[in-house]
Structures are given as structure tokens and as C-alpha cells.
Amino acid sequence: MKKIVLLGYMGCGKSTIAQNLSKITNIPFLDLDICIEKRANLSIKEIFEKHGEIYFRKLEHEMFLELLQSSENYIIGLGGGTPCYANNHLLLQRDDIISVYLKASIETLYNRLVHNKSKRPLIADMNEEEMKEFIAKHLFDRSFYYNHAQHKVSVDHKTVEDTVNDILAILA
Ligand SMILES: Nc1ncnc2c1ncn2[C@@H]1O[C@H](COP(=O)(O)OP(=O)(O)OP(=O)(O)O)[C@@H](O)[C@H]1O
Ligand SMILES: O=C(O)C1=C[C@@H](O)[C@@H](O)[C@H](O)C1
Ligand SMILES: [Mg+2]
């Protein structure tokens, strides 16, 4: 069995989908953001504030490599930016993993992010217009990296169950 890696923009549903997929498949789920927080003993927000983004990206790369190297089988939910730094996008193509890009529109992302944006340092202080413009530009820049995933699943207008079923079909 290969490790399953879920990726996509902040709020596309990586953590939610991975948790549900984990329950069905009995493969343990690891959220890369949470692994980083445990290792640093700080929240992601605090790591950005205290040490800056470059330090965070280094930790993120090291932790991603460490999880991929582990002999245990996992579903790994990446951070929204993980594929876009430190050549992590090339790791998505390893043949010992299955990588899935959860692809969401700007509208879907806005609607999902607006409720708990304070936890996400990149958008915490933005109003609606700023957030939509930021997501549009950011998604455009990041799509190049996200598209290195081996599989793409559209999540717009889908329930958690729909998306989990789409991934199960890929694994079948
Ligand atoms: N159909 C759906 N599929 C997945 N998540 C959904 C869906 N509908 C609503 N949500 C909500 O969208 C929000 C964002 O989901 P989640 O935190 O899993 O995203 P994420 O991709 O892990 O974000 P981040 O990169 O910031 O960790 C959650 O509050 C989740 O409950
Ligand atoms: O999109 C991003 O760059 C990020 C997404 C989150 O998952 C966290 O990894 C962090 O807030 C950075
Ligand atoms: Mg998450």
C-alpha cells in the first residue's frame, strides 16, 4: 500500500477529507501542519510570528520528507503551501506515493475560509474583497505546483462524502 498525499489550497478540505478517508480505510491520518506544530511546540501562527515564513518552509520540507521516509503507511494532508516550496512538488511524483490535488474554485475557497480565517496567518487581516483578490492571484501562482499531483479531484459543490468516494475510486 502506498502513502496517500492530499494537497491543495488553504480551505480546499485536505484535513477534513483526510480524516474521513482515514476512518473508512483504517489508514492513519497525519496532518503536516499539526506535525510541524508538535515538533516546534508552537502554533503555525506563532511560528510565522516568531521565526518568519522562511523558517516555517524549512521545517515544513524536513517534516514532509520525514513522513515520506517513514516505513508506516499514512494518509498525509499537506499544508496549503507545501507543494510550492523547496521543490516539494517533485516529491508528489514519487512512485511510492499516491498524490491527489483537491481542486477548488475561488468562490468555494472564499466560502470555506471566511469562517475561520484568524487561524490562517496569510489571510487573517483581510476583508472580503482583499481575500478574493488574494485567493485568485495566489491560486494562479500555485496551480503550477499543485498540478504536479498524480491525480486531481474537483471539490466544488461536493459533500465530504462525495470527495471521499472520488478518492476511493482512484485507490481502487
Ligand atoms: N464538502 C466539503 N469538503 C471539505 N471541507 C468542507 C466541505 N464543506 C465545508 N467544508 C469546510 O471547509 C473548511 C476548510 O476545510 P479544511 O480545514 O479541511 O481545509 P484544509 O485544506 O485542511 O485547509 P488548510 O490548508 O488551511 O489546513 C472546514 O471548516 C470544513 O468543515
Ligand atoms: O497556504 C499556505 O501557505 C499555508 C497553509 C496552511 O496549511 C499552513 O501550512 C500555513 O498557514 C501556510
Ligand atoms: Mg488543514
Automatic annotation (TrEMBL):
Cofactor(s) annotated in UniProt: Mg(2+)
Known catalytic reactions: shikimate + ATP = 3-phosphoshikimate + ADP + H(+)
Location(s) in or outside the cell: Cytoplasm
Principal location class: cytoplasm
Domain of life: Bacteria
A Gene Ontology molecular function term of the record: kinase activity
Residues annotated to bind Mg(2+): 15
Residues holding ATP: 11-16, 120
UniProt-listed HAMAP family: Shikimate_kinase
Identification of the protein by name: Shikimate kinase
Organism listed in the record: Flavobacterium endoglycinae
